[in-house]
Amino acid sequence: MIKHTVLAAVLFAQSVAAIAAEAPPLRYDIYVRGAFNGWGTDNVLAWQGKGIYQADILVSPGNHAFKIGSKDWAAEWVANPAASVGIKLGDAYALATEAGPEDYLFTKKTTTFRFRVDVSDPKRPVLTVTQVETPAPAAATDPHVGAGATATLTFPTWDGKEESARFSVRDPQAPLRSYAHSTTMQLRDPGPQATTYEEDAALPVVRSGNLAFDALFALAGHEMKLDSVKEIRDGNYNGGAAIPCDCFETGEKWHYVWTRDLSYAADLGLAMLDPQRVRNSLLFKLSGWRAGVTKAPQVAGSPDGLQIVQDTGSGGSWPVSTDRITWAFAAEEVLKTLPAGERAAFATTALQALANTIENDRIAAFDKTTGLYTGEESFLDWRDQTYAKWITDDLASMASSKALSTNVGHYKALTLAAQLAREQGDKTRATRYEGWARDLKRAINTHLWLDDAGMYSSLTAAHFDGAPLHKFDWLGQSLAIVTGVADGARAQKILASYPHGPMGAPVIWPQQQDLPVYHNRAMWPFVTAYGLRAAIAGGNVAVADAAYDTLMRGAALNMSNMENLEWLSGQPLLLDEAHPNLIGPVINSKRQLWSVGAYLGMVIRDVFGVSTTREGVEVKPFVTAKLRGGVFAAGDSIALYNLRLQGRAVNVKLRLPPVPAAGTSGYYAVERILVDGKPAGSSIPWSALDAHSDIEVQLGKLVDGATAIRRVSADPYAETPTVFGPREPRIDGVARAGAATTVTIVPADRQTGITYNVYRDGKLVASNLNAGTWTDRENSAAACYAAEAQYTSSGNRSHHSVPRCAGASVAIAATDPRVQASVAIAPGNARFAEAHLANWGRPADRLDVRAVRVPQAGDYAVQVRYHNGANQINLGISGGVKWLALKDESGRIVAQGVVQLPHARIEKANTPTVYSTPLAARLKANVAYRIEMSDFYNMSYLDSNRSFSAAGGVDGPSNRFDVYGVRLLRTNGTK
Questions:
Q1: 864-881 residues labelled b (16+ CB within 10 A) or e (exposed)
Q2: Burial code of 668-706, b = ≥16 C-beta within 10 A, e = fewer?
Q3: What is residue 16's predicted lDDT score, i.e. its pLDDT?
Q4: Which of 58, 108, 585, 729 is the residue whose CA sits 20 to 30 A from 782?
């Protein structure tokens, strides 16, 4: 036996030595990166020798997207660069060593998979995935043994069962408690069904008489501390190496600072609790120009270019997406909580960054016709989740649409900038921004309000249509209420009209078919928290109670403040074995920063009513009869201790009225406020608070409040008309015959119970049609048409079809002798069949198209026909952003402005060209015009992106694309 053991050891040592002697063929580490590990670098493929890299990974149930990639994504390997592949166990897949869509691995139970990549031929790596035995977990011990106090929360499930969460402490009288927390619900990620966490002396604690409520607040504080880091990292930046920053990272699976995540998290709760860390994180999301960047003459702002960073994303980032201005929500809150000395310095920087951002967004993303800003919906930034199916092939159309949430963000940025300018003595700038804010508020209410729905449209259709869509989102509606964009009457309609499922409000309405859960079919706690804030502003107790329930349930059953949950079941993962492509949420992180901020804010700002102003503290608690008779039924008061505000430790005690009778509705008015025993109003100046102060609030009579709430319910596994919208149709043809135009509507599928609506130039002109032809008798030779499907049973509507225009067009190819450019013509090839101007767009590049004539006078849309393959359509910072000018024979400018040329799909062969966003111009017939295109800027020009791994990063700014020509399309004016 001893000899065998010695022999085995010798053989093992020899094997290890042999592997070590064989140099690995790759000069870098390679990782399995996917939804199961937050696309991070937790799972390195270890060198095994003989060409093999291998990793064993425990994967939870789901249909998980993944890729093989290096730390900095310089290497990216997928099975098929043109389409996603569902990986089958044991099959060998030759990997393409180029960027492409994610591959998928499905498992219906937690399983250990062995990912093996054979790189014997480094140019043709081969992937094999197999299942290996998962070690049995150690027997779990009861975490509540020896507890001095316990509490259990029980929740009904969608399918008639129950799930429960249990909480315990050993010493309920301890000044700082240690909690044990367990759940019966199957967790999203592999791991134990119990956890422990402690209260922190640097953070507030709650004593409510309800151990579970106290524990969940402590959990949120604990997770805030876990998200408080000294360094951040993302595989796309700094070669994947850590970046020093006393910042908030975004979650367990997201280790970077993202502008919108940070901003909403700070606004909801974090700015009050750690203003310095929020400030640091906000400063990290500011950047000036990179060294060597030459600013185009049209670019506005201070010479250093300091502005808010739009993170990587759709079509190459800004200005396809313009919600970087959500930064203002966090900045406003942190300015209320920073000590005076620190506030002044940050206020100066904030105004400079806001002004530069506002001025350039006004140039690149403002539509003067509607008075609205263009750009993607805020946070709903997965194109296929919330937009028409065709939009992924035409991101310029997404770029030209206008979104409610983003426009409300611009309103916030304008009002904050105006306030700071006035504080800093810049009355001219303050007046300018105040005027822009007033005009924007009016435009939102004019163009996005849908009276028949009692809500704002989430977004408009794109250029050549422009109609507000019957699509709705809870964040946009809520932000409109809390910022004051919506007046009282509209706020009441919104709160009564937005649908709530059994577990809470979905982030979009209606849901979209054929898509997994993420933004679609999901609840996000931070959005629920804004819904709660809106409900309190509107005094709607039914909507507020629904939000309280959603936030407490999610944290309790998941033992964490999760990124998102399926909306009809409340599950962190809805496993649909019959439809693996619909499983989701497709990614879901614990301790997601804005979810953590949401829960902390729910307790501090909403229940206890504590918020800060520049002058002091406001106290306006919102305790409903349901909360008093349920969560707070055990005692006659609840208390928040050790809330630290501007160097003061504040304790807040709410004295509660008697428990109401079952079924009672309403919220309690404030009867009396005492500060250190002295009467006070709801607005308490800083001077009234000592280093240690006690605020006591006596709640009095019950106020009825509004109770209107729209309830919906459905089977979470069925795509029913009750909660889904139909698929969008298409217009197959627009034919002119005399003064009439015939439009042919083609349905997306064979579903019954659907009628169709037709829009002309963004206005509804026909409704309740059957599929087929419809004739427009109006003499509209230059009209553009779009169609919309509608369920007759629910009224839920689809996105609009691709608009089809009847107007004539003038097209000029890049090879036309009238085209003069600073780059040479490239011949066509198998992928790009046409000759074109290749890789045009360096800052010094120019493009002129001379002697351009149109046969008829009228309104025209000038567009560049192009292809931008700098990155994938969902990634990057290299969207084309250029300045286009149209001049007449005398050189007078007829029209000018920014045009966008976002990333576009690349096919193996015959990659299609696409069109830029349009420049509107009114032209005369048979007059020679000249089109000139020159540089503007994109996010790759900013210093913060100099270490980005892909186009526009380490190799310098990228604002280049292939040009195939220009088009002038006659319209009735672009929308």
A1: bbbbbbbbbbbbbbbbbb
A2: bebeebebeeeebeeebebebbeeebbbbbbbeebeebb
A3: 46
A4: 729
Q: State the Cα–Cα distance between residues 692 and 326, nearest whole angstrom.
A: 34
- Together in a domain, 794 and 821: no
Same structural domain, 822 and 789? no
pLDDT mean values, one per 10 residues, the chain (975 residues): 45 46 84 92 95 96 94 91 93 92 93 96 94 85 94 96 98 97 95 96 98 98 98 94 97 97 98 98 98 96 98 97 98 96 97 98 98 98 95 97 98 98 98 98 98 98 98 98 97 98 98 97 98 98 98 98 98 93 94 98 98 97 98 97 96 98 96 98 96 98 97 97 97 90 92 94 97 92 96 98 96 98 92 93 96 97 97 96 97 98 90 96 97 98 97 97 98 79
CATH classification at residue 742: 2.60.40.10
672 DSSP β-pair partners: 698
Q: φ and ψ at 445, to 5 degrees?
A: -70, -25
Distance CA 860, CA 808 (A): 10
CA-CA distance, 605 to 407, in Å (whole number)? 25
State the residue range of the domain holding 625: 617-711
Instruction: Tell me how many domains the chain contains.
Output: 4
Which among 966, 263, 223, 915 has a CA at the least distance from the CA of 599?
A: 223
- What does the angle CA 505 – CA 632 – CA 624 come to, to the nearest 5 degrees? 50
880 shares a domain with 782: no
Q: Using CA atoms, how far apart are residues 371 and 546, in angstroms rounded to an integer? A: 35
Are 841 and 779 in the same domain? no
Amino acid letter for position 155: F
964 assigned to some structural domain: yes
Measured CA to CA, the distance from residue 811 to residue 283 in angstroms comes to 46
CA dihedral sign, ordered 7, 10, 14, 16: positive
Angle in degrees, 0-180, between the axes of helices 211-226 and 541-558, rounded to the nearest 10: 70
| Shared-domain flag, residues 697 and 621 | yes
Single-letter code of the amino acid located at 47: W
For residues 911, 917, 919 and 924, what is the CA-based torsion angle, rounded to 10 degrees?
50
> Are both 707 and 764 inside the same structural domain?
no
DSSP type of residue 311: P
**Domain-embedded: residue 492:** no
Q: In Å, how far are 238, 312, 473, 519 from 317, measured between CA atoms?
A: 19, 5, 22, 19
Whether residue 262 lies inside any domain: the answer is no
C-alpha–C-alpha distance, residues 252 and 260, integer Å = 17
Residue 696 parent element (H or E): strand 692-703
Instruction: Look up residue 209 and give its DSSP letter.
Output: S
Q: Are 796 and 935 contained in the same domain?
A: no
Same domain as 668, residue 770: no
Q: Which of 78, 103, 132 is the last residue of a domain?
A: 132
- Are 942 and 288 within 8 A, CB to CB? yes
Lookup result for tokens 């046409």? 834
Among 776, 801, 826, give the residue marking a domain's end. 801
User: If you search the block for the tokens 């809805």, which residue do you land on?
Assistant: 574
Amino acid at 162: E
Strands 162-169 and 149-156: antiparallel
Distance CA 542, CA 923 (A): 56
**In this predicted structure, what is the pLDDT of residue 974?**
64
Q: Is residue 178 part of a domain?
A: no
